[in-house]
Amino acid sequence: MKTVFAHRGISTLAPENTLAAFALCKPHGIGWIECDVDILADGTVVVSHDDTLDRCTDRSGSLYDLQAGDLAQIDAGSWFADQYMGERIPTLAQLITLVNQDQLNINVEIKSCSAGWAMTERLIDNVIAALDHLDDGRQLIVSSFNHQALAEFKRRRPQTAVACLYEAGQLGEDWLAVLQQCQAEFIHPADHGLTQQMIGDFKAAGYRVNVYTVNDLARANQLFNWGVDGVFTDIPHCFPAKYRAIGS
Ligand code: G3P
Ligand code: MG
């Protein structure tokens, strides 16, 4: 069975990385979500792609200057559509409650926290504390472009499957050594520039392969036929029903 991940939730129907975007998954039969996480000044883990508020809220400024109490004053929905006015930046704890309620599976992407290594370690610890509230039976992958942070996460929580993310053009000849160093089970490469040969190499080395971000059904089909296990997409609701069987 091929996996279709709702990238930042159904991020074409609702504001990305909000509870509204994730809550649309179950009704559309989508069993897997992807979210990005970073940390506030007080250690709260929040679901956000950017480390600033500027792109997806009604405010400007750094996440690293905020406290949990500030979240109630920040609108993360009205930029997208009127109906989402008042939507908040969720905490990872809030998202995990939804994941348990809707029996979803989750890929948590730990952002390359630019607040420094001490905050990165705090982020890792606080992500782990939040993940401890996932119900038994929920499937989990933790991924990161920051392979040092990913290796540290795996050291602290070895029972969780981890994935090395690669940006387009960043896949070097050392990819196998990096995956081994992280004790990764997955590789998550960018779609751009990815070839059948590269996928064959990943699979031959025993890794599962999930590709981001694939918003073209024919390209997704081609990747699946080349052996890719899953794709991250902003349009999971547009995929044929065979990809949208909850619980798969
Ligand atoms: O985890 C897949 C994908 O989300 C990685 O890129 O920048 O969309 O977080 P980005
Ligand atoms: Mg992401």
Please, could you describe this protein's structure?
It is globular and about 50 Å long. The protein has an 8-stranded parallel beta barrel with strand order 1-2-4-5-6-7-8-9, surrounded by 5 helices. Helix 3 packs across helix 4. It is α/β, with parallel strands linked by helices. The N and C termini lie close together (7 Å). The site of magnesium ion has 3 residues, from strand 2.
Comma- or semicolon-separated keywords:
248 residues, alpha/beta, TIM Barrel, 7 helices, 27% helix, 18% strand, binds SN-glycerol-3-phosphate, binds magnesium ion
Oligomer: single chain
**Beta-strand residue percentage:** 15-25%
Bound molecules: SN-glycerol-3-phosphate, magnesium ion
CATH superfamily annotation: Phosphatidylinositol (PI) phosphodiesterase
Low-confidence stretches: none
Our measurement of the CA-to-CA distance between the termini, rounded to an integer number of angstroms, reads 7 Å
Shape: globular
* Number of H/I helices: 7
Query: Structural class, please?
Result: alpha/beta
* Main sheet characteristics: 8 strands, parallel, barrel
CATH class: Alpha Beta
What value does the average pLDDT take? 97
Residues in helices, as a percent range: 25-40%
Q: What's the β-strand tally? A: 9
